[in-house]
Amino acid sequence: MLRHRHRLGLGAAGRPATAAELPDHIAVATGLRVDIQALRGLAILLVLLHHAEWPWVPAGFLGVDIFFVISGFLITGLIDQALDDGRFTFRDFYTRRIRRLFPAAYATLTLTALVAPFLLDPLEYRDFAPQLAGAFGFFANVVLWQQSSYFGSGAALKPLLHMWSLSIEEQFYILLPPALLLCPCRLRPALVALMVLVSAGLCFTLVQLSPSATFYMLPTRAWELGLGALAALALRRRAGLRGPWPLLRLACASALLLLPLLASKDSHPGLAALLACLATAILLLPGAPGGRWQAGLAPLVWLGNRSYSLYLLHWPLFVFASHVFIGPVPPSLRALIVLASLGGAALQYRFVEQRFRGLDLTPLRLAGFVLVPLLLVGATYVASRSLTTPTTVARGGGQGLSPACDFRDRFLPLAECRSPPTQGPTGTATLLWGDSFAMALSPGLAATTSGGLIQATRSVCGPFIDLAPINHGQNPRAWGESCIRFNRSVLDYIASQPEIGTVVLSSALVQYIPGGEARSWRQLVATPEGLSEQPQDLEALLHALAATVERLRELGKRVVLFAPPPIVGLDMGRCLDRAAAGRPTVSPFPDCSYTRATYEAARLPLRDLLATIRTIGDVPVIDLDVALCGSGMCATQMDGVPLYRDGDHLSGPGSRLLGEALDWGAWVDQVAR
Q1: Any idea where the SGNH domain is (predicted)?
Q2: Which residues, given as ranges, of the chain have pLDDT below 50?
């Protein structure tokens, strides 16, 4: 997201053209690309409104895609011109990048690192240290890919999440100059076009297979910067620029205004990103609109001038607020954060960006650019390890007996996913089958199951044969197909193991229930004709549950369904952790507990489903409502032990405590049939 006072096109002998040498429709009196700064202003405005959760801008994240195209355009134009003039050097190129990017980035990262230990949750602060290292080293996208999905609920708690896009740009800046340098001038457009085609092909193929990697990685996002690069090469060569520009520009400007209002985050980057990038690239080709439009563009130009600092500063402020609030941040506070971001960006632009633009990079200053990250990252690593509380430990893990028990395509009888019998070798084993909610039950069941526990679990994938939940985010159709394969492999394993006497089914269930949660789900159903995508349907879920139970009983197994624990959609694990660590916290439940009435209202669709299952009577149901909410208040901790690790799942210590207190093993043995 570089800002350049970029001149338009070339004049005689390849030198930068002055305004007088350019047609009126692509020049302004100063010879500067006012339209580029206006596009930057629009892009940062979209990002800012999206992060402020402005309800009418659901796809404001497209502002980042606009930034990518602009960055590719500006950088490629500078490199191509310098190469043609015979004055390109890597030293000069990267010196400019350091002067432009490092001061504001270092200022923001330093302030964020200084505030983080006082406001972040202890668990998130542990994740902050590698984020900080990645931000300084321009590999934040790789770190964040390992930590979270950009559109996942945990993303709102990562102060440096936004650095993924700057990392992609810097990686692009590292690879582009040598590629253009080694390529003959006449072949540069073909080289960039090939890169765009390959990258776009990877992107639109892999977004269905690995959405998170596709979102974060340069090979699948380079096409966006590449479109800007193609526009720069075309403009400098004046190749193929004839056409009905006024109408085309109007259509492209309309697209950039309408797409953020109409598109969704599903399958991003996808068609909406492609249209936004193409529209941006086309708008960059003819140049700035005539001078009569400058006054109207002034607010966007002002934002565009400060877009880099505004992008850097705004997101940590939103994240810090999200940490303090257990629940939604009030709209009024989000509005104040927008104003604070604007004010902070204006100050940083004036006193950091402008001041250091002509910085002389002496060896001592370069050493400082290395020393500052080392000191900050090192101090953060040390501090993050010293802030651990017992509650923080309870919030970790979550895969049950072992991280290896969060299987992928096929279940394997791993030794680490099996607990020893609690009463010697006698008795039959119990198999726990389900999604992450089943994983959370594993410690308690393992501690109380006499014949030993076998854990067969996969995140999000409920224990229902021939049925899988899918969406257009992290769980696309390819994921649903592998979920169905996983469940079939579990059933095959059960059929081959006579030692298994009981099967415990467990799932969040909400991914199958219409209106069960905010995310948009569909379902993939295996039929005699093949796999079919369908809307969520309770009848299909009940049919799959009945078919699963029937098949298990045909194999001679006893079955029970273990219901999700009482939850209200707020992160009680984080609430307890902040209280234990003394962090400032604003919560609708000051003591991190809630009433049974609140729970019942929040989980009405799920409770209705469980009531239907009990009425049908195909499978007995175990739930913890009475145990945890019997007094009218739902407990979130017992004997100082946090029962939840997040807003949904039991913690490992909490599961073990409840399992032993309620003797889950005997309970399962008593009711299973």
Answers
A1: 405-662
A2: 1-31, 288-291
